[in-house]
């Protein structure tokens, strides 16, 4: 199990956040989740194949990929936000030293804390809390409020905010490596991947595979909200829908086909993530897909 070295970039970053955190300790039953799309590819390999080979989660600075913005380079927005939040702790460090991002699942949602970034998620082990920092809102909004395992005063701010549902999550930054075999409790997949290559690849990882309640939205529902992301994305959603429905696998197949812009598919995913009827409960311990 990795521990934070003294006088290191990680310890400096943790100290910078500790000096600005307040509130009660984190609840032991909560977890950090890392949402992502498990059916994407990197080169000729599936994302899960790459993860199985690497054995670790990597930051956007290393992968140059993201389900959000792509600004992880020196002088870019992500670099600037991290420099401000962590008081310059990582400014001169290699990409591999950068923190890995997730969100605090204090509501214990079966689909993870930040489905904006993907249909599935890694649920990290409790011991990772000791090297994790938090902010609200997302660092893209240049937050002023921070937290850690000892002082988590961000819950009320998140619960009382009137932002869109997809933007209301407490951002988490895990400092140091995230080893799949040591730091991850489970990979929690959408049931649309049962019996697919995604499931087969997931079973090669050194983590337990679980299933959440599932994302699924009727295209008729999407048509009711053209103002949410724009009429062009409603029309794209209608083009992609199968038998009048959207699922994560349908969008994933469109992404792998190379026929559509990634940013366009991201907006379609936002419709599915925002308006799908899912069970937002604490049933994140399930071991099989629901009927």
Sequence-ordered SSE layout with sheet pairings:
Blueprint: H1 9-18, E1 32-36, E2 41-42, E3 45-46, H2 47-54, E4 56-57, H3 60-63, H4 77-85, E5 100-104, E6 120-124, E7 132-136, E8 145-148, H5 155-160, E9 171-174, E10 178-179, H6 180-183, E11 184-189, H7 197-202, E12 208-211, E13 217-218, H8 219-222, H9 226-229, H10 231-240, E14 245-246, H11 248-257, H12 262-275
Parallel strand pairs: 11-12
Antiparallel strand pairs: 1-5, 1-6, 2-3, 4-10, 5-9, 6-11, 7-8, 7-9, 13-14
Helix pairs in contact: 10-12, 11-12
Core attributes:
single chain, alpha+beta, eight-stranded mixed sheet, two-stranded antiparallel sheet, 17% strand, globular, disordered C terminus
Walk me through the structure.
- By secondary structure, the chain is of the alpha+beta class.
- The chain folds into two domains: 9-210, no CATH class; 217-280.
- The protein is 31% helix and 17% strand.
- The strands form four sheets. It has an eight-stranded mixed β-sheet. Strands 2-3 form a two-stranded antiparallel ribbon.
Order of helices and strands: HEEEHEHHEEEEHEEHEHEEHHHEHH
Write down the domain tally: 2
Uncertain segments are: 282-291
Helix content: 25-40%
**Computed CA radius of gyration, to the nearest angstrom:** 18 Å
Structural class by helix and strand composition: alpha+beta
InterPro entries: DUF3626 (IPR022074)
Organism: Novipirellula artificiosorum
Protein name: DUF3626 domain-containing protein
Pfam family, one: DUF3626
Quick description:
This protein is of the alpha+beta class and 291 residues long. The radius of gyration is 18 Å and the shape is globular. InterPro entries: DUF3626 (IPR022074).
